[in-house]
Design a protein that fits this description.
With 94 residues, the protein is mainly α. It contains two helices and no strands. The model has no long low-confidence stretch (mean pLDDT 85).
Length: 94
Amino acid sequence: PNGLAAVSKVPAAGWMQILAYMSFCEASVDQSAGTPGGTGDLGFKVLTAEDPVQKTRKLNSELANGRLAMMAIMGMFFQDGLTGSAWGDWALYT
């Protein structure tokens, strides 16, 4: 099944595996106040730059791309809920 219909097809054991992995990820790092994990620093850097201006530009680009991706997936969820297909019927457009 495609789109939102796939959520109901995942067996309970699959949801338990997902929940167990999420719990492991949360519990495996000390996230108490005052620790690096508490501020979201998990020991690796993805966006790095020596120049502060370049680093700010990279971080702003990452935020903008993340926001765009969230809007796109919400649009696909809406279309899937409305029409039953996240991709649409291409025969209607040609």
